[in-house]
# Entry
Amino acid sequence: MSSKCKLRCCLAMVVGFLGLSQSQLLAQSAPTEINRISPSEVDEKLNSSEFFLNGQQTGTAKNIEDLYAPPEFNQQGTTRAIEWQMRVRQNELSSPVEVEYEVKADNLTGNTFSQENSRNTIPVTIAGTEFETLPDGNETETVIVKGKVTLKFDVSQFRAAGEYGGRVSICVKNTSGGCIGS
# Structure
């Protein structure tokens, strides 16, 4: 076998391998389990530039007053959007479709995120929500409820550096008024 033929065979195997592995990823874009929200956990980090008005935590002092002046924090807050989706049985879904959101810190304080086992919290508000119901391909008994919630973090209220966390509970209402999947 010539070297050109070997090279063509190797290239064909590489292209075939890459093509097959990508098609599997495309097939996993919708939630596969019924009544399970996807993704179930999101890890978002805030950048230090989002805390300061000028986008930096360093600066230059031109005089003694500048040196002792407190830093100018971002008073507008910063936002994060979380997209989610859930496959549900159509006959379980309330009509009209209702979705409720609740924010709780790790220390169970409402409408905040907190440091682990701490009283240090940051206010979090729900700045916007949207959702839609989509057909589930060839399935006639299930639909995909897809949504987005935008959280606003009041970074001017940070009291201590560190990692803050919390939970956003998403409740897709069922026909009896409870949450689907709970």
About this structure: Confidence is low (pLDDT under 50) at residues 14-28. The radius of gyration is 24 Å.
